[in-house]
Design goal:
One of its GO terms (cellular component) is cytoplasm. This is Isoaspartyl peptidase. InterPro entries: Ntn_hydrolases_N, Peptidase_T2. Keywords: Autocatalytic cleavage, Hydrolase, Protease. The strands form two sheets. Strands 4-3-2-6-5-1-11-12 form an eight-stranded mixed sheet, with helices on both faces. Strands 7-8-9-10 form a four-stranded antiparallel sheet, covered by helices on one side. 33% of the residues lie in helices and 22% in strands. It is globular, with a radius of gyration of 17 Å. Helix 1 packs antiparallel against helix 2, helix 2 packs antiparallel against helix 3 and helix 7 runs antiparallel to helix 8. The chain starts with 9 loop residues before the first strand and ends with a helix. By secondary structure, the chain is an alpha+beta fold. The protein has one domain. The longest helix is centred in the N-terminal third of the chain and has 20 residues.
Protein backbone atom coordinates (compact mmCIF):
# COMPACT_ATOMS: atom_id res chain seq x y z
CA UNK A 1 0.00 0.00 0.00
CA UNK A 2 1.86 3.07 -1.19
CA UNK A 3 1.18 6.70 -0.46
CA UNK A 4 -0.13 8.75 -3.38
CA UNK A 5 0.93 12.19 -2.10
CA UNK A 6 4.43 13.53 -2.61
CA UNK A 7 6.61 11.86 0.01
CA UNK A 8 9.55 13.85 1.40
CA UNK A 9 10.98 10.96 3.40
CA UNK A 10 10.07 7.45 4.50
CA UNK A 11 11.38 4.67 6.71
CA UNK A 12 10.42 1.03 7.29
CA UNK A 13 11.82 -1.36 9.89
CA UNK A 14 11.15 -5.05 10.51
CA UNK A 15 11.86 -7.58 13.23
CA UNK A 16 12.12 -10.72 11.14
CA UNK A 17 10.07 -13.17 9.09
CA UNK A 18 9.31 -15.60 11.89
CA UNK A 19 6.65 -17.16 14.13
CA UNK A 20 5.96 -14.81 17.03
CA UNK A 21 5.19 -16.93 20.12
CA UNK A 22 1.92 -16.31 21.98
CA UNK A 23 2.43 -13.60 24.56
CA UNK A 24 5.32 -12.01 22.64
CA UNK A 25 3.20 -10.07 20.17
CA UNK A 26 3.27 -6.70 21.93
CA UNK A 27 6.97 -6.99 22.68
CA UNK A 28 7.67 -7.36 18.97
CA UNK A 29 5.32 -4.54 17.99
CA UNK A 30 6.80 -2.19 20.58
CA UNK A 31 10.33 -3.08 19.49
CA UNK A 32 9.88 -2.32 15.80
CA UNK A 33 8.02 0.89 16.65
CA UNK A 34 10.88 2.09 18.87
CA UNK A 35 13.33 1.32 16.08
CA UNK A 36 11.22 3.19 13.56
CA UNK A 37 10.91 6.21 15.84
CA UNK A 38 14.70 6.38 16.29
CA UNK A 39 15.16 6.61 12.52
CA UNK A 40 12.12 8.80 11.98
CA UNK A 41 13.40 11.50 14.32
CA UNK A 42 16.55 11.80 12.22
CA UNK A 43 14.72 11.98 8.89
CA UNK A 44 12.12 14.44 10.18
CA UNK A 45 14.92 16.78 11.27
CA UNK A 46 16.46 16.68 7.79
CA UNK A 47 19.06 14.03 8.62
CA UNK A 48 20.35 11.42 6.22
CA UNK A 49 19.10 7.92 5.54
CA UNK A 50 22.39 6.30 6.58
CA UNK A 51 22.10 7.72 10.09
CA UNK A 52 18.41 6.85 10.27
CA UNK A 53 18.84 3.23 9.22
CA UNK A 54 21.78 2.73 11.59
CA UNK A 55 19.85 4.25 14.49
CA UNK A 56 16.86 2.00 13.84
CA UNK A 57 18.92 -1.18 13.74
CA UNK A 58 20.93 -0.27 16.83
CA UNK A 59 17.63 -0.23 18.72
CA UNK A 60 16.79 -3.71 17.45
CA UNK A 61 20.30 -4.99 18.17
CA UNK A 62 19.83 -3.94 21.81
CA UNK A 63 16.42 -5.62 22.10
CA UNK A 64 16.52 -9.34 23.08
CA UNK A 65 13.19 -9.90 21.35
CA UNK A 66 15.04 -9.89 18.02
CA UNK A 67 17.73 -12.08 16.51
CA UNK A 68 20.45 -9.43 16.21
CA UNK A 69 23.09 -8.17 18.61
CA UNK A 70 21.98 -8.93 22.18
CA UNK A 71 19.69 -11.95 21.91
CA UNK A 72 21.25 -13.40 18.75
CA UNK A 73 20.82 -17.09 17.93
CA UNK A 74 23.52 -19.52 19.09
CA UNK A 75 25.55 -21.66 16.72
CA UNK A 76 26.50 -25.33 17.20
CA UNK A 77 29.20 -24.28 19.70
CA UNK A 78 26.72 -22.23 21.76
CA UNK A 79 28.30 -19.02 20.50
CA UNK A 80 26.87 -15.84 19.01
CA UNK A 81 28.02 -15.15 15.44
CA UNK A 82 26.53 -12.16 13.65
CA UNK A 83 26.18 -10.68 10.15
CA UNK A 84 25.23 -7.14 9.16
CA UNK A 85 25.27 -4.89 6.11
CA UNK A 86 24.45 -1.41 4.85
CA UNK A 87 24.16 -0.11 1.30
CA UNK A 88 24.04 3.51 0.14
CA UNK A 89 21.81 3.96 -2.90
CA UNK A 90 23.54 7.16 -3.98
CA UNK A 91 26.92 5.64 -4.88
CA UNK A 92 26.28 1.88 -4.48
CA UNK A 93 28.78 1.67 -1.65
CA UNK A 94 28.43 -1.40 0.56
CA UNK A 95 29.71 -2.17 4.05
CA UNK A 96 29.22 -5.64 5.51
CA UNK A 97 30.48 -8.02 8.19
CA UNK A 98 30.02 -11.76 8.46
CA UNK A 99 30.62 -14.18 11.35
CA UNK A 100 31.59 -11.27 13.57
CA UNK A 101 31.86 -11.80 17.32
CA UNK A 102 32.49 -9.61 20.34
CA UNK A 103 30.94 -6.41 18.99
CA UNK A 104 27.89 -4.73 20.46
CA UNK A 105 26.51 -3.23 17.25
CA UNK A 106 27.38 -5.09 14.03
CA UNK A 107 25.43 -2.56 11.96
CA UNK A 108 27.75 0.23 13.11
CA UNK A 109 30.78 -1.85 12.12
CA UNK A 110 29.23 -2.38 8.68
CA UNK A 111 28.49 1.36 8.39
CA UNK A 112 32.16 2.29 8.81
CA UNK A 113 33.18 0.01 5.94
CA UNK A 114 31.27 2.15 3.43
CA UNK A 115 33.61 3.88 0.96
CA UNK A 116 36.49 1.52 1.80
CA UNK A 117 38.24 -0.46 -0.95
CA UNK A 118 36.62 -3.63 0.42
CA UNK A 119 32.98 -4.38 1.15
CA UNK A 120 32.78 -7.49 3.37
CA UNK A 121 34.98 -8.44 6.33
CA UNK A 122 34.46 -11.68 8.27
CA UNK A 123 35.43 -13.53 11.42
CA UNK A 124 38.44 -12.47 13.47
CA UNK A 125 39.28 -9.87 10.83
CA UNK A 126 35.92 -8.17 11.42
CA UNK A 127 36.53 -8.01 15.18
CA UNK A 128 40.05 -6.67 14.64
CA UNK A 129 38.69 -4.04 12.24
CA UNK A 130 36.05 -2.95 14.78
CA UNK A 131 38.72 -2.62 17.47
CA UNK A 132 40.96 -0.56 15.18
CA UNK A 133 38.04 1.75 14.40
CA UNK A 134 37.33 2.32 18.09
CA UNK A 135 33.85 0.76 17.87
CA UNK A 136 31.93 -0.79 20.75
CA UNK A 137 33.38 -4.18 21.70
CA UNK A 138 31.99 -6.59 24.28
CA UNK A 139 32.44 -10.04 25.75
CA UNK A 140 30.76 -12.27 23.17
CA UNK A 141 28.99 -14.23 25.91
CA UNK A 142 27.34 -11.02 27.12
CA UNK A 143 25.16 -11.17 23.99
CA UNK A 144 23.66 -14.54 25.02
CA UNK A 145 20.17 -14.71 26.53
CA UNK A 146 18.52 -17.57 28.41
CA UNK A 147 15.85 -17.71 25.72
CA UNK A 148 18.43 -18.44 23.03
CA UNK A 149 20.11 -21.10 25.19
CA UNK A 150 16.74 -22.84 25.52
CA UNK A 151 16.11 -22.61 21.77
CA UNK A 152 19.43 -24.30 21.11
CA UNK A 153 18.74 -27.01 23.69
CA UNK A 154 15.28 -27.63 22.26
CA UNK A 155 16.62 -27.49 18.70
CA UNK A 156 14.11 -24.81 17.79
CA UNK A 157 14.37 -23.13 14.43
CA UNK A 158 15.61 -19.55 14.53
CA UNK A 159 16.38 -17.66 11.35
CA UNK A 160 15.10 -14.12 11.45
CA UNK A 161 16.94 -10.97 10.45
CA UNK A 162 16.14 -7.36 11.33
CA UNK A 163 16.21 -4.76 8.60
CA UNK A 164 15.48 -1.19 7.59
CA UNK A 165 15.00 0.80 4.39
CA UNK A 166 15.04 4.59 4.50
CA UNK A 167 14.57 7.51 2.11
CA UNK A 168 15.77 10.94 3.21
CA UNK A 169 14.74 14.43 2.10
CA UNK A 170 17.65 14.61 -0.37
CA UNK A 171 16.33 11.52 -2.17
CA UNK A 172 18.94 9.08 -0.90
CA UNK A 173 17.90 5.47 -0.30
CA UNK A 174 19.58 3.12 2.15
CA UNK A 175 19.14 -0.57 2.99
CA UNK A 176 20.47 -2.09 6.22
CA UNK A 177 20.34 -5.57 7.78
CA UNK A 178 21.55 -7.28 10.95
CA UNK A 179 21.20 -10.86 12.20
CA UNK A 180 22.39 -13.48 14.63
CA UNK A 181 21.92 -16.16 12.00
CA UNK A 182 20.54 -19.66 12.50
CA UNK A 183 20.12 -21.55 15.76
CA UNK A 184 22.57 -24.46 15.82
CA UNK A 185 24.24 -23.52 12.54
CA UNK A 186 27.84 -24.53 11.75
CA UNK A 187 30.59 -22.28 13.07
CA UNK A 188 31.42 -19.70 10.39
CA UNK A 189 28.16 -20.03 8.46
CA UNK A 190 27.22 -16.76 6.74
CA UNK A 191 23.72 -16.17 5.43
CA UNK A 192 22.06 -13.84 2.97
CA UNK A 193 22.02 -10.76 5.22
CA UNK A 194 25.52 -9.40 4.39
CA UNK A 195 25.36 -10.39 0.70
CA UNK A 196 24.27 -7.66 -1.73
CA UNK A 197 21.65 -8.87 -4.18
CA UNK A 198 20.56 -11.61 -1.78
CA UNK A 199 19.42 -10.09 1.51
CA UNK A 200 19.44 -6.41 0.55
CA UNK A 201 20.07 -3.83 -2.15
CA UNK A 202 19.67 -0.06 -2.67
CA UNK A 203 19.99 2.15 -5.73
CA UNK A 204 18.51 5.64 -5.83
CA UNK A 205 17.19 5.36 -9.37
CA UNK A 206 15.34 2.09 -8.62
CA UNK A 207 14.61 1.58 -4.93
CA UNK A 208 15.72 -0.25 -1.81
CA UNK A 209 14.87 -3.68 -0.37
CA UNK A 210 15.70 -5.67 2.76
CA UNK A 211 14.79 -9.29 3.37
CA UNK A 212 14.47 -11.83 6.15
CA UNK A 213 13.70 -15.53 6.24
CA UNK A 214 15.34 -18.71 5.04
CA UNK A 215 18.77 -17.44 4.04
CA UNK A 216 19.89 -20.38 1.96
CA UNK A 217 16.80 -20.16 -0.25
CA UNK A 218 17.08 -16.37 -0.45
CA UNK A 219 20.70 -16.76 -1.59
CA UNK A 220 19.87 -19.49 -4.11
CA UNK A 221 17.22 -17.26 -5.67
CA UNK A 222 19.22 -13.98 -5.31
CA UNK A 223 15.92 -12.59 -4.11
CA UNK A 224 16.86 -8.95 -3.52
CA UNK A 225 18.34 -8.70 -7.00
CA UNK A 226 15.22 -10.12 -8.62
CA UNK A 227 12.98 -7.75 -6.66
CA UNK A 228 15.08 -4.78 -7.78
CA UNK A 229 14.84 -5.90 -11.40
CA UNK A 230 11.06 -6.11 -11.18
CA UNK A 231 10.80 -2.87 -9.21
CA UNK A 232 12.09 -1.03 -12.27
CA UNK A 233 8.81 -1.80 -14.06
CA UNK A 234 6.17 -2.33 -11.34
CA UNK A 235 5.39 -0.90 -7.90
CA UNK A 236 6.99 -2.05 -4.64
CA UNK A 237 4.02 -4.15 -3.49
CA UNK A 238 3.85 -6.22 -6.68
CA UNK A 239 7.62 -6.58 -6.87
CA UNK A 240 8.07 -7.99 -3.38
CA UNK A 241 4.92 -10.13 -3.22
CA UNK A 242 5.38 -11.75 -6.61
CA UNK A 243 9.05 -12.58 -6.08
CA UNK A 244 8.59 -14.02 -2.58
CA UNK A 245 5.90 -16.30 -3.97
CA UNK A 246 8.05 -17.17 -6.97
CA UNK A 247 11.02 -18.04 -4.77
CA UNK A 248 8.86 -20.38 -2.71
CA UNK A 249 7.59 -22.11 -5.84
CA UNK A 250 11.09 -22.53 -7.31
CA UNK A 251 13.31 -23.36 -4.32
CA UNK A 252 11.01 -23.37 -1.28
CA UNK A 253 11.54 -21.35 1.86
CA UNK A 254 9.93 -18.47 3.70
CA UNK A 255 10.80 -14.80 3.32
CA UNK A 256 9.59 -11.35 4.20
CA UNK A 257 10.63 -8.11 2.56
CA UNK A 258 10.32 -4.34 2.79
CA UNK A 259 10.63 -2.20 -0.34
CA UNK A 260 10.83 1.56 -0.93
CA UNK A 261 10.72 3.34 -4.29
CA UNK A 262 12.59 6.59 -5.09
CA UNK A 263 9.24 8.40 -4.74
CA UNK A 264 8.62 7.02 -1.25
CA UNK A 265 6.04 4.46 -2.28
CA UNK A 266 6.33 1.36 -0.14
CA UNK A 267 5.44 -2.30 -0.27
CA UNK A 268 5.87 -5.28 2.02
CA UNK A 269 5.01 -8.94 1.97
CA UNK A 270 5.83 -12.22 3.70
CA UNK A 271 4.89 -15.88 3.47
CA UNK A 272 6.05 -16.57 7.03
CA UNK A 273 3.52 -16.73 9.87
CA UNK A 274 4.49 -13.26 11.13
CA UNK A 275 6.62 -10.32 10.02
CA UNK A 276 6.55 -7.54 12.64
CA UNK A 277 7.19 -4.23 10.93
CA UNK A 278 6.65 -0.50 11.28
CA UNK A 279 6.25 2.12 8.55
CA UNK A 280 6.06 5.89 8.43
CA UNK A 281 6.35 8.49 5.70
CA UNK A 282 6.30 12.28 5.81
CA UNK A 283 2.63 12.13 4.78
CA UNK A 284 1.51 9.99 7.73
CA UNK A 285 0.25 11.41 11.01
CA UNK A 286 1.49 8.38 12.95
CA UNK A 287 3.41 5.14 12.30
CA UNK A 288 1.70 2.02 11.07
CA UNK A 289 2.79 -1.05 12.98
CA UNK A 290 1.88 -4.60 12.02
CA UNK A 291 2.49 -8.13 13.22
CA UNK A 292 1.53 -9.63 9.87
CA UNK A 293 0.34 -8.57 6.43
CA UNK A 294 -3.29 -9.54 6.98
CA UNK A 295 -3.60 -6.70 9.53
CA UNK A 296 -2.81 -4.00 6.97
CA UNK A 297 -6.21 -3.82 5.27
CA UNK A 298 -8.05 -3.58 8.57
CA UNK A 299 -5.79 -0.77 9.79
CA UNK A 300 -6.10 1.11 6.49
CA UNK A 301 -9.90 0.96 6.72
CA UNK A 302 -9.82 2.37 10.26
CA UNK A 303 -7.52 5.21 9.20
CA UNK A 304 -9.69 6.20 6.24
CA UNK A 305 -12.84 6.02 8.37
CA UNK A 306 -11.52 8.67 10.74
CA UNK A 307 -13.00 12.19 10.24
Amino acid sequence: MGESAQVKFAIMAHGGAKPVPPGKEQTNLDGVQRALEAGHRILQAGGNALDAAEAALRVLEDDPAFNAGYGSSLNENREVQMDAAMMNGEDLQIGAVGFVQGVKHPISVARTILKKEYTLITGKGAHKYAEEQGLELCDNDSLITEEQIKKLQDKQKGNNTVGCVALDQKGNLVAATSTGGLTGCPEGRVGDSPLAGCGFYAENAVGAVVLSGDGEEIMRYRLASRIMEKLATVGPEIAVSSLVREMHERVGGEAGGLVLSPQGEYGWFHNSSHFPCAIITSEMKEPRVYLKKSEEKEQEEKIHAQP
